[in-house]
Amino acid sequence: MTQIGGHDKIIEPISIRKADAHDAELLYSVCRQSYIESFADHWNEGGLAWYLDKVYGLDVLGRDLRNSRINYFIAYYDKVPAGFMKVKLDSVLKDNVGGKHLEIEKLYFLAKYQRKGLGRELISTARLLANELDIDVIWLGVIDTNASAISFYERNGFKFFDKARLEIPYFKDELRGMWRMILQTGNDQQKPIDK
Fold it and tell me: DSSP E strands: which ranges in 90-167?
């Protein structure tokens, strides 16, 4: 259940809860499994294990959970941990994009819980957090060949901003193209976004 604005977020059978320092082992399991199910085939030999340790190692998750500028939200479906979202506060998209920014850095689900409304509820949670913190822009990166993810984000109000390239060892070259997408929150609609 999300503790944003002092309210829990429950939309049966979905509930969203902000992770705390005691959730490192739970996140370790959910993050790694959901990532493997979605992206194992995106890596060259040795890359997946390297990335899982670098991004979802128990020590890394513990450090993230102690960082007030990083928030993890755990999505439950019928009380089962089914996915997560990682949000970074003050993660600036580009210097010339005004206002306060929030980045959805990760948003993944276990395969059997995809297309059950969890993503929509996590995006809603990010919007609530942005509203509470007076954030102007929510942004994220998505692999440009992932048409279903791009479509999902567009249905939830995100728009194409620009292209980028993922620079990370072991990742398959043909999958490195990225779209950066933005959602203006309404907290500062009078400021146009310049690319």
Answer: 101-109, 137-143, 159-165
Q: Is the peptide bond before 169 cis (omega within 30 degrees of 0)?
A: no
Q: Please state, in angstroms and as integers, the Cα–Cα distance from residue 161 to each residue in 79, 116, 175, following that order.
A: 36, 27, 19
**Paired residues of 76 in beta bridges:** 15, 81
Angle at 93 (CA atoms; ends 87, 98), nearest 5 degrees = 110
Q: Full-prediction pTM beyond 0.85?
A: yes
| Predicted confidence (pLDDT) per residue in 97-155, tens digit | 778 999 999 999 999 999 999 999 999 999 999 999 999 999 999 999 999 999 999 99
Q: Which residue has the tokens 């059950």?
A: 116
Give one DSSP letter per residue of 45-94, joined into a string. TTHHHHHHHHHH-HHHHHHHHT-TTEEEEEEEETTEEEEEEEEEET--S-
For residues 27 and 166, give the distance between their C-alpha atoms in angstroms, rounded to a whole number.
24
CB distance 103 to 139 below 8 Å: yes
